[in-house]
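Much of our argument rests on the idea that a fold can be written as discrete symbols. This step matters because it turns folding into a mapping between discrete strings. The record that follows shows the chain in one-letter code together with its fold in token form.
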Amino acid sequence: MRHRIVGELMTSAVVHVRPGTGFKEIARLLAEHDITSVPVLDHEDRPVGLVSEADLLLNEAAREDPAGLLPTPHLEPRERARSRATTAAGLMTAPVVCARPEWTVVEAARLMQGERLKRLPVVDEAGRLVGIVSSSDLLRVFLRHDRAIREEIRRDVLRDTLDIDPDTLDVQVHDGLVTLVGTVEHRGQVPVVERLCRSVDGVIGVTGHLGHRTDSGGAQVSEEYSPATS
């Protein structure tokens, strides 16, 4: 079994800027390419920061209301300095959080969730930029065809990982929802089958209607194991 990796989903042609790139040029690039942030690269193409729309908006937010209707904004010294910056070096958020091409979608998604990020620059072993991956890129795994998901479950989960004849279980996939019907040999295989099916890229949920021939001690049992839909 394998998860899709960042290198398969990332965008390789990355819009980027240098530390000396001016405010207006950054704003133009964001608007022209319909993106919300750009990585800032040093002379060796290593990301040293990230400039986002929010960073640019500090300039506007820090201004006093000419009509005098709004209170003077309170900004921390660092934010005030960034609000007055005119180049990427002063505007950017640093250090920048990066991913690697060999990371799985699970690793990248957990990092994005933990850091509350929507885009991650992707770097090679030398730290040079090779791409960028966004949350929408990671969500592409849920666009996988049901037939591809079903075949992966039958081949990779049942046959290759668990050594279960795929023809002994009925595997149905509809809009990413997996339904399993049939009987496995041991009680302990039931949660394992469901857990591994749930880990397949593109699976949204799993409903199991799996019986088992023997319990963990080898005694014969006849009841059906039917956990709730995940």
User: Anything to note?
Assistant: DSSP finds nine helices and eight strands in the chain. The two ends are 20 Å apart (CA to CA). Residues 146-161 form the longest helix (16 residues). The longest strand covers residues 177-186.
